Amino acid sequence: MTSMPDHIRAAYVSEMAAADTTGDDAQRWAHLERVHIISQPYPWPHTRNHIAMLAFALGQHDRREALGQIVRIIVAAPGSLSGRYPEGNTGRVEAGLMKPMPVPDDLAEMLRD
Fold this sequence. Notes:
- The chain has about 110 residues and is mainly α.
- The chain has helices spanning about 5-20, 25-40, 45-60, 65-80, 105-110.
- It has one domain (about 5-110).
């Protein structure tokens, strides 16, 4: 298992903090989605991101998203450990469980470093 490099951990922490402090629901989801892309290769941060998504979905009374996040919590760590995760996927129910998606340019550059 690979440990999270410092520059990726800093981005993870920054995006999670931004998600926690914004008052705008769409912005919160956007930050959590970016955290998801950043955290996919790392079992605990990846799982922790889905727990944050679940908490937010429950707060919004979004049953569909909450159920999808429960499934994702179960598969996040094994997916990270095995390297079987869809690169760029935002982690939301609407994105699908295994659909690869484009990685935003700034995140792609950071993840290449």
